[in-house]
Amino acid sequence: MADSVHCIPVGCSLSSDVKKNALFYLLLAILHIGCGTLKESVSHGLTDGVYRYKSADNPKSTVYVQVEETHLELYPASSIKGTFDTTNILVVPMSEEVNDPIGKGLCLSKQGWDLDLITVVFKYRFHTPSLPQQFSSHLNGGLYFGRKWESFRFQNSVNRIGHIKKNVQYKTLDLGFMVGLGSTPMNASVTQNQIQTEYDGLVFQKGIAVFGGVSQFTFGFGLGFDTLLDQNRKVWIYQEKPWIGLMVGINLTE
Q: How far apart are CA 191 and CA 60, in angstroms?
């Protein structure tokens, strides 16, 4: 019965509606990755701002990075707090034709607060006395707020015909909280036969989430809890029960 209302026991085949939802989320993820790829082709994901700077022959220091089309301009922090020395510019070429010794081992990193629009692609619900473990793919949306750590490591390499390749390895880690609204199938199976009608109930979802990424690929996992917002919340077997979810997000702070 659960399969007919989009809540699928582990190991069972997916219904056509679930497959449509899965395709929608897959397209969203591809779009998200595609935007990252376009961004990477222009500036390797770097944006103007304050970074921690470290290279093979330079200890950690604070710099302001100005991203240009063909190079990066790094302005070191001055003796006055919160200001930068505009007369002492370190230029890092991004063109692959330029053999730049500065770029070897260069690492830029930063941290800050992050706000995302998110959706949970799948929710894994643990087994209950009346139902086995379930996968749910109902549409939902929410906001994520957390702390973000990013690093950009530059490495120059030379191929077999002598051409220089600029490699920028991007890594990110995000940890924070999420809230949002979603829908869930309501029927006799998930209420221990306390109701006989079938409908989609509105739930308030909240929890913690972690996002990670390497290069243009990002992914997230969450531990959440759902609260049914109608009169059947007392008989819903998943009320305030934990679930684990796979998530995608669109950043709102860049």
A: 58
Q: Measured between alpha carbons, how far is residue 150 from residues 26, 32, 39 in Å?
A: 25, 18, 15
Q: How far apart are alpha carbons 91 and 233 in whole angstroms?
A: 61
What count of other Cβ atoms lies within 10 Å of the Cβ of residue 82? 7
What pLDDT, on a 0 to 100 scale, did the predictor assign at position 218?
73
Output the average pLDDT for the chain.
80
Residue 51: inside a domain: no
Q: Given this model, what pLDDT does residue 52 score?
A: 93
Tens of pLDDT, residues 185-198: 999 999 999 999 99
| Token pair in block for residue 133 | 């473990």
The domain of 121 spans: 2-41+112-251
pLDDT at 51: 95
* pTM (predicted TM-score): 0.72
DSSP state of 103: G
Say how many domains are in the chain.
Answer: 1
Place of tokens 């081992």: 105
Phi, psi of 227 (to 5 degrees): -120, 115
